[in-house]
């Protein structure tokens, strides 16, 4: 039997020392830190439930347009002799105000000629009446002499056709005089209503033809906003389909909001009518909201508008419209609180309770709903994707 060499003993010593060192390190290692199991209660963000009663808001938007807009045109031709200083873009005109005058000289002459013809035909009628009277008297004397042998006279004998022709000639002359006077009056082109001038294209000295557009004028007494609404929103407006001409007393309040500069301005209006045809592209119902006296400066809304000069309701401006819908009781929650299936997750004492709701209206970031909410409950707006009845949650930042 051979004796282990010295190198073998060295190797064995190194291995034994390594094993011993490993055992020592295992024996002296520190205890790992003990951490509690993770908390399984989710943290959620909630918002309060506000209750209220009154009209449900129906919101929409549209462009302001005038009640009426016409192209101002003369009914006679001639040279323009005068143009009103108000007939400029943005000018204000009044109903019946003369805006353009056409040289009336030729029309005065036409009136004088027609008046002379009336006088002449009046004399002709007097002559025809006298001749008819004389003819009738002569025939009466002839019949007295002839006795029963005299027959019935013809209309020509009594000069009745001549009398009718004289009367017709006078009527024709009188009609021509009326036409001449009417044409003379039409040399003054007047504003048909109170309004503003959108554009004009006439100057003194220019020749204008009958029917040629001189200016575009729109009415300033009433402005309209056509608001496209879904059938769901339109159904919230009480008595909508009874509105229109002949039913002006049943007015549904509305409010028109317009941004101007850094502020927002408001005008009170009303729902005038609804168009009884769906828009073929958007499948919406056009509801017409009217604002009386749109030139009146709007009422500032919010702090940003205060101190600035309030504008009128500008034609062509894009505006928001808030309409008073049907009256009732409701609860207001954030739109983010609505869950699929028309329910919200209510929280009280950190316990979740699903609440089925009927969504009455959605406006902005709020939803108006009807549901069985309890006093002091809030609704979850974020933090969990699924909640069950009785689930425990922790209220996080922004909660109630």
> What amount of the residues lies in strands?
35-45%
How confident is the prediction overall: mean pLDDT?
87
CATH topology type of the largest domain: Elongation Factor Tu (Ef-tu), domain 3
**Quaternary state, please?**
single chain
Shape: elongated
Order of strands across the main sheet: 2-11-14-13-12-16
What is the tally of beta strands? 21
Number of self-contained structural domains: 4
Topology record:
Elements (H helix, E strand, L loop, with lengths): L5 H23 L14 E6 L1 E17 L2 E4 L5 E6 L8 E2 L4 E5 L2 H42 L13 H26 L2 E3 L4 E6 L6 E2 L6 E5 L2 E8 L1 H4 L17 E9 L2 E16 L6 E8 L6 E3 L16 E17 L8 E6 L2 E13 L2 E6 L6 E5 L11 E2 L5
Structural write-up:
With 400 residues, this protein is α+β, with helices and mostly antiparallel strands. It folds into four domains: 45-54 and 329-395, conserved putative lor/sdh protein from methanococcus maripaludis s2 fold; 57-66 and 218-328, Elongation Factor Tu (Ef-tu), domain 3, CATH 2.40.30; 69-100 and 187-217, RNA polymerase II/Efflux pump adaptor protein, barrel-sandwich hybrid domain (OB fold (Dihydrolipoamide Acetyltransferase, E2P), Beta Barrel); 104-185. Helices cover 24% and strands 37% of the residues. The protein is built from four helices and 21 strands. The chain has helices at 6-28, 105-146, 160-185, 231-234, and strands spanning 43-48, 50-66, 69-72, 78-83, 92-93, 98-102, 188-190, 195-200, 207-208, 215-219, 222-229, 252-260, 263-278, 285-292, 299-301, 318-334, 343-348, 351-363, 366-371, 378-382, 394-395. The strands form three sheets. It has a six-stranded antiparallel barrel with strand order 2-11-14-13-12-16. A four-stranded antiparallel beta sheet has the order 3-10-8-5, with no helix packed on it. The chain has a four-stranded antiparallel beta sheet with strand order 7-6-4-9, with no helix packed on it. A hairpin with a 2-residue loop joins strand 18 and strand 19 (366-371). The radius of gyration is 46 Å and the shape is elongated. The mean pLDDT is 87.
């Amino acid at each position: 039997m051979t004796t282990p060499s010295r190198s073998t003993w060295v190797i064995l010593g190194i291995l034994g020392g390594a094993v011993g060192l490993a055992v020592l390190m295992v024996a002296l290692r520190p205890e790992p830190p003990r951490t509690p199991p993770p908390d399984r209660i989710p943290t959620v963000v909630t918002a309060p439930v506000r209750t209220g009663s009154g009209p449900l808001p129906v919101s929409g938007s549209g462009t302001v347009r005038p009640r009426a807009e016409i192209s101002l045109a003369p009914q006679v031709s001639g040279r323009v002799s005068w143009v009103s200083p108000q007939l400029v873009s943005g000018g204000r005109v009044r109903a019946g105000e003369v805006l353009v005058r056409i040289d009336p000289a030729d029309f005065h002459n036409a009136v004088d000629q027609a008046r002379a013809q009336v006088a002449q035909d009046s004399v002709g009628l007097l002559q025809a009446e006298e001749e008819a009277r004389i003819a009738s008297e002569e025939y009466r004397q002839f019949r007295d002499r002839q006795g029963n042998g005299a027959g019935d006279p013809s209309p020509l004998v009594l000069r009745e056709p001549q009398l009718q022709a004289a009367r017709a000639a006078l009527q024709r002359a009188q009609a021509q005089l009326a036409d001449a006077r009417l044409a003379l009056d039409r040399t003054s082109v007047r504003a048909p209503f109170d309004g503003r001038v959108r554009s004009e294209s006439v100057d003194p000295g220019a020749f204008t033809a009958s029917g040629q557009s001189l200016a575009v004028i729109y009415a300033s007494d009433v402005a309209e906003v056509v608001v496209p609404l879904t059938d769901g929103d339109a159904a919230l407006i009480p008595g909508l389909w009874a509105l229109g001409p002949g039913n002006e007393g049943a007015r549904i309040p509305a409010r028109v909001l317009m941004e101007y500069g850094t502020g927002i301005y408001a005008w009170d209006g009303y729902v005038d009518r609804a168009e009884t045809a769906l828009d073929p592209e958007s499948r919406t119902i056009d509801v017409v909201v009217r604002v009386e006296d749109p030139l009146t400066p709007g009422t500032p809304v919010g702090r940003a508008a205060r101190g600035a000069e309030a504008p009128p309701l500008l034609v062509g401006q894009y505006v928001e419209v808030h309409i008073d819908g049907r009256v009732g009781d409701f609860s207001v929650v954030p739109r983010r609180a609505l869950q699929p299936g028309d329910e919200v997750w209510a929280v009280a004492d950190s316990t979740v309770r699903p609440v089925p709701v009927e969504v009455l209206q959605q406006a902005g970031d709020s939803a108006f709903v009807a549901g069985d909410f309890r006093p002091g409950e809030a609704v979850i707006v974020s933090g969990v994707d699924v909640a069950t009845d009785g689930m425990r949650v922790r209220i996080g930042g922004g909660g109630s």
